[in-house]
Amino acid sequence: MREQRSRYSTVSILLHWTIFVLIFANATFGGWMEEAAPNEKLDYYQLHKSVGITVLLLSLVRLGWRIAHPWPPFPDNMTTWERIIARGTHILFYVLMMGAPLLGWAAASAGGSPETPLFGALPGPNLPVPQGEELSETLGGLHKAMVKAIYVVLGLHVLGALKHHYLDKDEVLHRMLPLLRDPQR
Ligand code: HEM
Ligand code: HEM
Q1: Which ligand lies nearest the alpha carbon of 17?
Q2: Whose CA is nearest to atom 17 of ligand 1?
Q3: pLDDT score at 63
Q4: How many Å lie between the centroid of ligand 2 and the Cα of residue 22?
Protein backbone atom coordinates (compact mmCIF):
# COMPACT_ATOMS: atom_id res chain seq x y z
CA MET A 1 0.00 0.00 0.00
CA ARG A 2 1.38 3.44 -0.98
CA GLU A 3 2.12 5.92 1.83
CA GLN A 4 -0.66 8.50 2.20
CA ARG A 5 -0.29 11.71 0.27
CA SER A 6 -0.67 14.01 3.26
CA ARG A 7 1.68 12.17 5.61
CA TYR A 8 4.52 9.65 5.72
CA SER A 9 3.78 6.62 7.94
CA THR A 10 5.02 6.66 11.54
CA VAL A 11 7.54 3.95 10.61
CA SER A 12 8.99 6.12 7.79
CA ILE A 13 9.16 9.20 9.99
CA LEU A 14 10.79 7.31 12.87
CA LEU A 15 13.38 5.73 10.59
CA HIS A 16 14.09 9.03 8.79
CA TRP A 17 14.84 11.01 11.95
CA THR A 18 16.56 8.18 13.88
CA ILE A 19 18.95 7.55 10.98
CA PHE A 20 19.56 11.29 10.62
CA VAL A 21 20.59 11.58 14.30
CA LEU A 22 22.73 8.42 14.16
CA ILE A 23 24.60 9.53 11.01
CA PHE A 24 25.23 12.95 12.55
CA ALA A 25 26.43 11.38 15.84
CA ASN A 26 28.62 8.82 14.10
CA ALA A 27 30.37 11.42 11.94
CA THR A 28 31.34 13.05 15.26
CA PHE A 29 32.39 9.70 16.78
CA GLY A 30 34.54 9.04 13.67
CA GLY A 31 36.41 12.28 14.37
CA TRP A 32 36.86 11.34 18.05
CA MET A 33 38.14 7.92 17.00
CA GLU A 34 40.75 9.41 14.67
CA GLU A 35 41.97 11.88 17.29
CA ALA A 36 41.88 9.53 20.30
CA ALA A 37 45.02 8.61 22.21
CA PRO A 38 46.32 5.11 21.26
CA ASN A 39 45.05 3.53 24.51
CA GLU A 40 41.51 4.89 23.90
CA LYS A 41 41.27 4.26 20.15
CA LEU A 42 39.73 0.80 20.53
CA ASP A 43 36.85 2.11 22.70
CA TYR A 44 36.03 4.82 20.15
CA TYR A 45 36.37 2.32 17.32
CA GLN A 46 33.88 0.02 19.05
CA LEU A 47 31.40 2.90 19.43
CA HIS A 48 31.87 4.10 15.83
CA LYS A 49 31.49 0.58 14.45
CA SER A 50 28.42 -0.19 16.61
CA VAL A 51 26.54 2.97 15.66
CA GLY A 52 27.60 2.67 11.99
CA ILE A 53 26.42 -0.93 11.64
CA THR A 54 23.15 0.11 13.32
CA VAL A 55 22.72 2.73 10.56
CA LEU A 56 23.38 0.04 7.96
CA LEU A 57 20.82 -2.37 9.48
CA LEU A 58 18.17 0.33 9.96
CA SER A 59 18.71 1.48 6.36
CA LEU A 60 18.09 -2.08 5.15
CA VAL A 61 14.84 -2.15 7.15
CA ARG A 62 13.99 1.24 5.68
CA LEU A 63 14.66 0.04 2.14
CA GLY A 64 12.42 -2.98 2.73
CA TRP A 65 9.68 -0.72 4.09
CA ARG A 66 10.04 1.66 1.13
CA ILE A 67 9.75 -1.19 -1.38
CA ALA A 68 6.60 -2.45 0.38
CA HIS A 69 5.15 1.07 0.81
CA PRO A 70 6.01 3.28 -2.19
CA TRP A 71 6.66 7.02 -1.76
CA PRO A 72 3.59 9.27 -1.60
CA PRO A 73 2.99 11.24 -4.81
CA PHE A 74 4.63 14.67 -5.23
CA PRO A 75 2.50 17.81 -5.03
CA ASP A 76 0.86 18.55 -8.42
CA ASN A 77 2.69 21.85 -8.91
CA MET A 78 6.20 20.30 -8.99
CA THR A 79 7.96 20.45 -12.38
CA THR A 80 9.49 17.36 -13.98
CA TRP A 81 13.00 18.60 -13.11
CA GLU A 82 12.09 19.17 -9.47
CA ARG A 83 10.69 15.64 -9.31
CA ILE A 84 13.85 14.18 -10.88
CA ILE A 85 16.14 16.06 -8.46
CA ALA A 86 14.02 15.21 -5.41
CA ARG A 87 13.70 11.52 -6.26
CA GLY A 88 17.35 11.30 -7.38
CA THR A 89 18.38 12.73 -4.01
CA HIS A 90 16.28 10.19 -2.13
CA ILE A 91 17.68 7.26 -4.13
CA LEU A 92 21.25 8.55 -3.69
CA PHE A 93 20.65 8.76 0.06
CA TYR A 94 19.70 5.07 0.17
CA VAL A 95 22.96 4.20 -1.67
CA LEU A 96 25.04 6.40 0.68
CA MET A 97 23.30 5.36 3.94
CA MET A 98 24.21 1.74 3.20
CA GLY A 99 27.41 2.27 1.18
CA ALA A 100 29.20 4.50 3.71
CA PRO A 101 28.96 2.11 6.70
CA LEU A 102 29.61 -0.92 4.48
CA LEU A 103 32.85 0.61 3.15
CA GLY A 104 33.94 1.63 6.67
CA TRP A 105 33.30 -1.92 7.83
CA ALA A 106 35.19 -3.33 4.82
CA ALA A 107 38.13 -0.94 5.46
CA ALA A 108 38.38 -2.01 9.09
CA SER A 109 38.07 -5.70 8.13
CA ALA A 110 40.76 -5.46 5.41
CA GLY A 111 43.05 -3.82 7.96
CA GLY A 112 42.56 -6.75 10.37
CA SER A 113 40.78 -4.70 13.07
CA PRO A 114 39.74 -6.64 16.19
CA GLU A 115 36.23 -8.10 16.02
CA THR A 116 34.88 -5.94 18.84
CA PRO A 117 31.30 -6.80 19.91
CA LEU A 118 28.58 -4.31 18.88
CA PHE A 119 27.67 -2.13 21.90
CA GLY A 120 29.88 -4.49 23.92
CA ALA A 121 27.26 -7.24 23.72
CA LEU A 122 26.30 -8.38 20.19
CA PRO A 123 28.54 -10.23 17.72
CA GLY A 124 30.61 -7.80 15.60
CA PRO A 125 32.49 -9.95 13.09
CA ASN A 126 34.77 -8.60 10.37
CA LEU A 127 33.59 -8.85 6.77
CA PRO A 128 35.15 -11.63 4.66
CA VAL A 129 37.36 -9.33 2.53
CA PRO A 130 41.00 -9.79 1.43
CA GLN A 131 43.56 -8.52 3.95
CA GLY A 132 45.99 -5.70 3.16
CA GLU A 133 47.08 -2.30 4.43
CA GLU A 134 46.84 -0.68 1.00
CA LEU A 135 43.36 -2.08 0.36
CA SER A 136 42.26 -0.95 3.81
CA GLU A 137 43.48 2.60 3.12
CA THR A 138 41.73 2.73 -0.25
CA LEU A 139 38.45 1.52 1.29
CA GLY A 140 38.90 3.96 4.19
CA GLY A 141 39.35 6.81 1.69
CA LEU A 142 36.19 5.74 -0.15
CA HIS A 143 34.36 5.52 3.19
CA LYS A 144 35.27 9.10 4.04
CA ALA A 145 34.40 10.28 0.51
CA MET A 146 30.95 8.72 0.84
CA VAL A 147 30.40 10.49 4.17
CA LYS A 148 31.34 13.78 2.47
CA ALA A 149 28.86 12.97 -0.30
CA ILE A 150 26.19 12.59 2.40
CA TYR A 151 26.94 16.18 3.54
CA VAL A 152 26.58 17.50 -0.04
CA VAL A 153 23.34 15.63 -0.73
CA LEU A 154 22.05 16.70 2.70
CA GLY A 155 22.63 20.37 1.78
CA LEU A 156 20.57 19.96 -1.38
CA HIS A 157 17.90 17.98 0.46
CA VAL A 158 17.46 20.56 3.24
CA LEU A 159 17.38 23.44 0.72
CA GLY A 160 14.66 21.55 -1.16
CA ALA A 161 12.65 20.98 2.03
CA LEU A 162 12.91 24.68 2.95
CA LYS A 163 11.89 25.74 -0.56
CA HIS A 164 8.78 23.56 -0.32
CA HIS A 165 7.94 25.01 3.07
CA TYR A 166 8.63 28.72 2.59
CA LEU A 167 8.29 29.32 -1.16
CA ASP A 168 5.88 26.66 -2.47
CA LYS A 169 4.03 26.52 0.87
CA ASP A 170 3.03 22.88 0.29
CA GLU A 171 2.76 19.84 2.60
CA VAL A 172 6.17 18.27 1.83
CA LEU A 173 8.02 19.29 5.03
CA HIS A 174 4.99 18.70 7.23
CA ARG A 175 4.47 15.18 6.01
CA MET A 176 7.94 14.17 7.24
CA LEU A 177 7.69 15.89 10.64
CA PRO A 178 6.78 13.80 13.70
CA LEU A 179 3.85 14.50 16.02
CA LEU A 180 1.70 16.34 13.48
CA ARG A 181 -1.86 15.12 12.99
CA ASP A 182 -2.97 13.99 9.57
CA PRO A 183 -5.73 16.40 8.52
CA GLN A 184 -7.30 13.63 6.40
CA ARG A 185 -7.67 11.18 9.29
C1 HEM B 1 26.72 6.17 9.44
C2 HEM B 1 27.81 5.54 9.37
C3 HEM B 1 29.18 6.16 9.44
C4 HEM B 1 29.59 7.47 9.39
C5 HEM B 1 28.74 8.72 9.23
C6 HEM B 1 31.03 7.47 9.51
C7 HEM B 1 31.82 8.61 9.52
C8 HEM B 1 33.19 8.60 9.54
C9 HEM B 1 34.02 9.78 9.48
C10 HEM B 1 33.49 11.22 9.42
C11 HEM B 1 35.31 9.38 9.49
C12 HEM B 1 36.55 10.25 9.38
C13 HEM B 1 36.93 10.88 10.68
C14 HEM B 1 38.11 11.83 10.49
O15 HEM B 1 38.89 11.65 9.54
O16 HEM B 1 38.21 12.75 11.30
C17 HEM B 1 35.31 7.93 9.58
C18 HEM B 1 36.45 7.14 9.59
C19 HEM B 1 36.44 5.78 9.69
N20 HEM B 1 35.33 4.97 9.87
FE21 HEM B 1 33.43 5.56 9.75
N22 HEM B 1 31.46 6.18 9.62
C23 HEM B 1 30.37 5.34 9.60
C24 HEM B 1 30.36 3.96 9.72
C25 HEM B 1 31.49 3.17 9.94
C26 HEM B 1 31.48 1.74 10.18
C27 HEM B 1 30.25 0.83 10.28
C28 HEM B 1 32.75 1.36 10.32
C29 HEM B 1 33.19 -0.07 10.62
C30 HEM B 1 33.99 -0.39 11.51
C31 HEM B 1 33.60 2.54 10.14
C32 HEM B 1 34.99 2.55 10.16
C33 HEM B 1 35.77 3.66 9.96
C34 HEM B 1 37.21 3.61 9.82
C35 HEM B 1 38.08 2.35 9.84
C36 HEM B 1 37.62 4.94 9.65
C37 HEM B 1 39.07 5.43 9.41
C38 HEM B 1 39.26 5.44 7.91
C39 HEM B 1 40.63 5.97 7.48
O40 HEM B 1 41.12 6.91 8.11
O41 HEM B 1 41.16 5.46 6.47
N42 HEM B 1 32.78 3.62 9.93
N43 HEM B 1 34.02 7.48 9.61
C1 HEM C 1 21.52 12.46 6.68
C2 HEM C 1 20.32 12.95 6.86
C3 HEM C 1 19.11 12.65 5.99
C4 HEM C 1 18.87 11.59 5.18
C5 HEM C 1 19.77 10.39 4.89
C6 HEM C 1 17.54 11.80 4.59
C7 HEM C 1 16.93 10.93 3.69
C8 HEM C 1 15.67 11.07 3.18
C9 HEM C 1 15.02 10.17 2.28
C10 HEM C 1 15.66 8.88 1.71
C11 HEM C 1 13.76 10.63 2.02
C12 HEM C 1 12.67 9.99 1.14
C13 HEM C 1 11.64 9.36 2.02
C14 HEM C 1 12.06 7.98 2.49
O15 HEM C 1 12.29 7.11 1.66
O16 HEM C 1 12.11 7.78 3.71
C17 HEM C 1 13.61 11.86 2.77
C18 HEM C 1 12.49 12.64 2.79
C19 HEM C 1 12.41 13.86 3.41
N20 HEM C 1 13.38 14.46 4.20
FE21 HEM C 1 15.21 13.73 4.62
N22 HEM C 1 17.03 12.97 5.07
C23 HEM C 1 17.95 13.54 5.93
C24 HEM C 1 17.82 14.72 6.63
C25 HEM C 1 16.77 15.58 6.53
C26 HEM C 1 16.68 16.88 7.19
C27 HEM C 1 17.75 17.50 8.11
C28 HEM C 1 15.48 17.41 6.83
C29 HEM C 1 14.95 18.75 7.30
C30 HEM C 1 14.77 19.74 6.57
C31 HEM C 1 14.80 16.47 5.96
C32 HEM C 1 13.56 16.62 5.40
C33 HEM C 1 12.91 15.70 4.61
C34 HEM C 1 11.57 15.89 4.05
C35 HEM C 1 10.70 17.11 4.24
C36 HEM C 1 11.26 14.75 3.31
C37 HEM C 1 9.98 14.47 2.51
C38 HEM C 1 10.24 14.68 1.05
C39 HEM C 1 9.04 14.32 0.19
O40 HEM C 1 7.95 14.14 0.71
O41 HEM C 1 9.22 14.18 -1.03
N42 HEM C 1 15.62 15.37 5.79
N43 HEM C 1 14.80 12.11 3.47
Answers
A1: 2
A2: 30
A3: 98
A4: 14
State pTM to two decimals.
0.94
- Average pLDDT in the chain: 93
Domain residue ranges in the chain: 10-176
Give the chain as a 3 state SS string: CCCCCCCCCHHHHHHHHHHHHHHHHHHHHHHHHHHCCCCCHHHHHHHHHHHHHHHHHHHHHHHHHHHHCCCCCCCCCCCHHHHHHHHHHHHHHHHHHHHHHHHHHHHHHHCCCCCCCECCCECCCCCCCCCCHHHHHHHHHHHHHHHHHHHHHHHHHHHHHHHHHHHHCCCCCHHHCCCCCCCCC
